[in-house]
Amino acid sequence: MIRSRFGTFRGLIRLALSYPQAVLRLAEERRPDPARVRRLVFLCQGNICRSAFAEAAARSAGLRAASFGLSAASGRGAHGPAIAAAAALGHDLSAHRAADIRDYVPEEGDLLLAMEVRQLHRLAADPRLRDRPRLLLGRWTRPALPHLHDPYGLDDRYMTQCLARIEKAVGALVNTFPGARLS
């Protein structure tokens, strides 16, 4: 059950540790003015599973979106199991190419959405991005999951579970940030 719901025991522990960080506002989040958000920018570690899928789901939902990885190999394709799980959910990741944080060009109205608390800490330490609005995407899952564990190389059931959670969170973002909708 742990493998299919949380990826690994480590994923479950990181989720448990992320709750107090999020509740006590230790997660380095910077809340945006929702009326000013014009583009949703998803990030994770490699930009080949979670953030790649979130970008595709957001675009399918009619939102302006981008994605990058904190340690991505720019130009790398999406992870094969992520492509398969995304296709099962009705999204195509076959043309996705990873972008690294160095490739990301901030725009006015960007909201950075991370998968993990530690990713928010990395953004807060980056002089180029520390003043940008940033939140945990898991705040929009039901129930809220402030840690969306990396499915790379893990059980296919967890890959599907993780991407389904991201898809639901993205669906909730449509109403929260109407300014990010495509015209």
Description:
The chain has a 4-stranded parallel β-sheet with strand order 2-1-3-4, sandwiched between helices. With 183 residues, the chain is of the alpha/beta class. Strand 3, helix 5 and strand 4 (134-136) form a beta-alpha-beta unit. The radius of gyration is 15 Å and the shape is globular. The protein contains 6 helices and 4 strands. Helix content is 38%, strand content 10%.
Features:
alpha/beta; 6 helices; 10% strand; four-stranded parallel β-sheet; 183 residues
Distance between the termini: 42 Å
Question: Strand order within the widest sheet?
Answer: 2-1-3-4
Largest sheet: 4 strands, parallel
* Proportion of residues in helical segments: 25-40%
Average pLDDT for all residues: 94
What is the total tally of β strands? 4
Count of helical segments? 6
Helix/strand order, N-terminal first: HHEHEHEHEH
Low-confidence stretches: none
Strand-residue proportion: 5-15%
**Class per helix and strand makeup:** alpha/beta
Shape estimate: globular
Radius of gyration: 15 Å
